[in-house]
């Protein structure tokens, strides 16, 4: 009732060959990449449905995590010339920019004050020159006097013109009377 020993190795060999055979037909590399992309897209579209942890285990095991808390607080540096490799250089650069800004602001304020002071000095000089030229006489009063004189002169010219017209009318009347030859007798 013993089974021959040759049958056991055949059954074990057939069991191994059955286990090595995959349940699905072999896929090509392109199909494998497409399948990985589909899985990644599904995880990206529904991140809460995935069972994967938010951070990998290797990140927790590192004593120092790069790109941790402070990476969102700093601007990306596009120019390699302005990139600081040392934090001290970075802070020195920031301090230098602040000092330059403060200096520019002070210079602008000084220029504004200087131009305003120059205008005030120029106006006061003009006023002093005007007082010297007029001998202390009020210019506004002189202008009013001149206007009054011009108004009086215009009125006198009007009166003279009216008197001239009156004389001309009288002369015309005398001429008309003489032309009628009316005798006084």
From TrEMBL:
Record's compositionally biased regions (Low complexity): 49-61
Composition-biased stretches (Polar residues): 1-36
Region (Disordered) location: 1-61
Stated name of the protein: Uncharacterized protein
Source organism: Candida viswanathii
